[in-house]
Amino acid sequence: MQTRFDYLQASFFSFLIHAVLFLYLIGFFYTEKQIRPILSKAVSVNIIVDEIIPKKIDPEVIEIPQAKKQEIVSLSTDNKLDFEQPSNQGYINDLQSLIKQESDISDLSELEKNIANYSSQMIKLIEDAWIKPKNIQDGLKCDIKIKTNVQGRIVSINLIKSSGNIRFDNSALQAVKRVETFSFFKELNKDIYDDIFKNISISFNPSK
């Protein structure tokens, strides 16, 4: 009986020693606990947006290369040519001179009518091709220089005086570009083309 008691006592102490060793090994008695941070430092997030710089619209657009520069002729539907009228003073003794003067005046008057007619056709074609920009004021006007070839094809377009509104100016230039060719040029003789319609300056005011 005593032997059994001693055996149980020895077994208990052995178990106790092994339990203490086990707890020691797993750090049960280590009182200073390491505190692990849950989160690291805060992260700063920046959204970078590229600045959109609006392109400057240069009203003097639509340049098609062409050779020599020539004198610019101002064109409008109200254009009139000034011609020297014969003097009413004095006597005209030579009947042939009188007939010749009257014939010259008649020819000049016909030329003036033709130029006014062609000018009106040109302006109407441009106005018909014009698309009015939204939300712009009425009464705007800009001056445009047009260069054409003998077939009536537009070879260059330049803004020479701005209306002060870039959208209106560009809409006028685009209207001229849409026309492309003035078909009535086939009716022009070479002198009228060279003197009047090769280089033209127009005032674009469609609301007038």
Automatic annotation (TrEMBL):
Entry superkingdom: Bacteria
Pfam families per UniProt: TonB_2
Keyword vocabulary terms for this entry: Membrane, Transmembrane, Transmembrane helix
Transmembrane portions of the chain: 12-31
The keyword Transmembrane is assigned to this record: yes
Protein name: LytB protein
